[in-house]
């Protein structure tokens, strides 16, 4: 019976499984955030979680990187030539016999029966400053999978900017552990080696790399005087990591550090999106505040219109009463008597019709002019405000996102443009407010749009105001006519005038109430329709806020998990 796995091995397996689950969550989070680059790096980490401990050799072209790998393994593994020949990634891993396998257009796997390769794999990458097409792209795609980066510099000149810029990415963006190797030491003097080694360590600290080990090696001396080559010191460092039992935990910790680096990038994007969301929310609040101000202005215009109509009504009533008093005066009644006025059955009705017609004509003419002027003032100001809001929304959307823009940006722009089109459609429509399709009209000439609103709202106001005035005054005049028709025969002039005045006053109160309710309803209806046109923007902001909150919560949970993976002790036998 085979022995059961040790507790330590089992614990490490559990840690690897937990880390793999976290990395899977990171992939999903990056995809939802629209970050394909982060998702790709996270998938690389997830793949690496199931692979052996991975050393990746990185450096500029012709710094002796491939020769160093060969000297390190004691095998002619990496290809060495006068020109930049490493045009693909080469993974050197364990196999029972030497073999070379092509695993893609940019990847070759070399199998070697080397004992150390049972626990680790070594990777030779194209130079970071290579002139061969796609070299740096290939290297950058592979770095996130590494557990330790052997970064090589020429011992003669380890200060090239391209190398240090890339090294900052390795340690910063991908958070890889780094060992610095100064190669070709046989070409430099003792003084050069001492100065350059010290300077490299100082540069590493200045660039936030901490205190990475710095080795000085010579692949040439390894073949003739191995005790002076420095290669054995590198081997010893690797052996301590591998055979010392720490490589399993080191690998998981390396992956967790890389994941935390990716989360930093997502968090930075999240902060930008949160700030952008806050700005958009402030802009929506500003639009609503502007609408509230426009609503208040419209209410004032409507109130002014109602007051002017009531003044016209009061003047028409005064004229009507004056005419009635004149017709009921003693001289007028004598004149009618002498003319046999009351012997004609149509005399009183004809008189009343004439007075009522004069009342209506005078009042309706004034009301028509007042209603048109009031509607013109209201709609002109409202049209200007809505046209400006539509322009502001289009400007906010921008000229159009690039095809590779984040999905959230594209959706935001689409909503902004749709809402702007909805405002234009509302302005240009000749139909009833609230019956406008927000997507039916795209960009329109502001003058034409304002004309549409003038016809729509202005016509509604004029017809509505005139309709209320006609309905109310018609009833008032009918009541007054009944009083007059019976009162003339009774010749009770003071009491009759008083009752007609009361009838007109009651009608005025009723007209004022109905007119106020009508205008308030019309104004609120128009503005509720406008606010409804902004609802897609409000909904989109709510959706973005909820999505960001969910992403932030998941990122916090993942960060806690990866931090725990770094803090959890563990080792393999």
Account of the 3D structure:
Helices cover 68% and strands 8% of the residues. With 573 residues, the chain is an alpha/beta fold. It has an 8-stranded mixed β-sheet with strand order 3-4-2-5-1-6-7-8, sandwiched between helices. It starts with 6 loop residues before the first helix and ends in a 6-residue tail after the last helix. The relative contact order is 0.10. Residues 1-9, 337-346, 401-406 and 430-456 have low confidence and may be disordered.
Summarize the helices and strands and which ones pair or pack:
Elements (H helix, E strand, L loop, with lengths): L6 H26 L3 H14 L3 E7 L5 H9 L15 E6 L4 E6 L2 E6 L7 E5 L10 H8 L5 E7 L6 H12 L4 E7 L6 H17 L7 E3 L2 H6 L1 H4 L1 H12 L4 H81 L2 H9 L8 H51 L9 H22 L17 H45 L2 H41 L1 H33 L6
Parallel strand pairs: 1-5, 1-6, 2-4, 6-7, 7-8
Antiparallel strand pairs: 2-5, 3-4
Helix pairs in contact: 1-2, 1-10, 1-16, 2-10, 10-12, 10-15, 10-16, 12-13, 12-14, 13-14, 13-16, 14-15
For the biggest sheet, the summary is: 8 strands, mixed
Strand content: 5-15%
Summed over residues and divided by their number, the pLDDT gives a mean of: 75
| Strand ordering within the main sheet | 3-4-2-5-1-6-7-8
Tell me the total number of β-strands: 8
Number of helices: 16
Structural class: alpha/beta
Question: Helix amount, in percent?
Answer: 55-70%
Shape: rod-shaped
Radius of gyration: 44 Å
* Oligomeric state: single chain
Order of helices and strands: HHEHEEEEHEHEHEHHHHHHHHHH
Q: In whole angstroms, how far apart are the ends?
A: 20 Å
Q: Spans of 5+ residues with little confidence (pLDDT < 50)? A: 1-9, 337-346, 401-406, 430-456
């Amino acid at each position: 019976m085979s022995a059961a796995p040790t507790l330590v091995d089992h614990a490490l397996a559990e840690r690897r499984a937990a880390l793999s689950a976290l990395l899977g969550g990171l992939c999903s989070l990056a995809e939802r955030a629209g970050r394909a680059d982060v998702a790709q790096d996270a998938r690389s980490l997830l793949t690496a979680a199931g692979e052996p401990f991975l050393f990746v050799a990185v450096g500029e072209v012709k710094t002796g990187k491939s020769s160093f790998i060969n000297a390190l393994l004691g095998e002619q593994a990496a290809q060495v030539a006068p020109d930049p020949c490493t045009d693909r990634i080469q993974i050197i891993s364990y196999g029972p016999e030497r073999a070379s396998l092509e695993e893609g257009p940019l990847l070759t796997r070399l199998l070697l029966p080397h004992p150390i390769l049972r626990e680790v794999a070594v990777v030779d990458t194209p130079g970071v400053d290579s002139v061969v097409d796609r070299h740096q792209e290939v290297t950058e795609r592979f770095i996130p999978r590494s557990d330790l980066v052997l970064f090589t510099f020429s011992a003669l000149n380890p200060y090239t900017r391209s190398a240090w810029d890339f090294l900052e990415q390795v340690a910063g963006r991908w958070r890889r552990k780094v060992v610095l190797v100064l190669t070709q030491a046989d070409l430099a003097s003792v003084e050069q080696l001492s100065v350059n080694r010290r300077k490299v360590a100082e540069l590493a600290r200045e660039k936030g790399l901490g205190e990475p080990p710095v080795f000085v090696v010579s692949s040439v001396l390894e073949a003739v005087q191995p005790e002076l080559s420095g290669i054995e010191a590198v081997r010893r460092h690797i052996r301590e990591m591998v055979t010392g039992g720490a490589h399993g935990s080191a690998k998981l910790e390396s992956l967790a550090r890389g994941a935390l680096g990716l989360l930093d990038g997502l968090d930075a994007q999240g902060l930008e999106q949160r700030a952008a969301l806050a700005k958009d929310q402030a802009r929506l609040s500003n639009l609503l505040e502007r609408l509230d101000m426009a609503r208040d202005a419209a209410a004032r215009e409507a109130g002014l219109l109602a007051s002017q109509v009531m003044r016209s009504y009061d003047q028409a009533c005064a004229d009507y009463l004056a005419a009635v008093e004149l017709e009921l005066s003693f001289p007028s009644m004598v004149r009618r008597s002498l003319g046999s006025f009351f012997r004609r059955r149509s005399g009183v009705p004809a008189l009343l019709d004439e007075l009522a017609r004069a009342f209506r004509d005078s009042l309706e003419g004034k009301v028509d002019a007042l209603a048109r002027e009031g509607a013109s003032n209201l709609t002109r100001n409202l049209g200007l405000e809505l046209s400006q809001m539509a322009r502001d929304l289009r400007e906010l959307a921008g000229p159009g996102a690039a095809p590779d823009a984040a999905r959230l940006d594209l959706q935001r722009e689409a909503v902004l443009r749709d809402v702007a089109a909805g405002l234009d459609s509302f302005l240009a429509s000749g139909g009833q407010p609230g019956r406008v399709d927000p997507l039916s009209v795209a960009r329109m000439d502001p003058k034409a749009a304002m004309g549409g609103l003038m016809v729509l709202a202005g016509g509604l106001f004029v017809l509505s105001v005139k309709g209320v005035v006609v309905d109310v005054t018609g009833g008032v005049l009918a009541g007054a006519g009944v009083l007059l028709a019976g009162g003339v025969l009774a010749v009770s002039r003071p009491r009759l005038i008083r009752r007609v005045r009361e009838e007109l006053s009651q009608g005025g109160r009723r007209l004022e109430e109905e007119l106020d309710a009508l205008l308030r309803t019309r104004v609120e209806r128009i503005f509720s329709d406008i606010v409804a046109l902004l609802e897609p923007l409000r909904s989109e902001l709510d959706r973005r806020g909820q999505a960001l909150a969910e992403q932030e919560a998941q990122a916090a949970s993942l960060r806690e998990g990866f931090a725990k993976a770094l803090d959890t002790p563990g080792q393999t036998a």
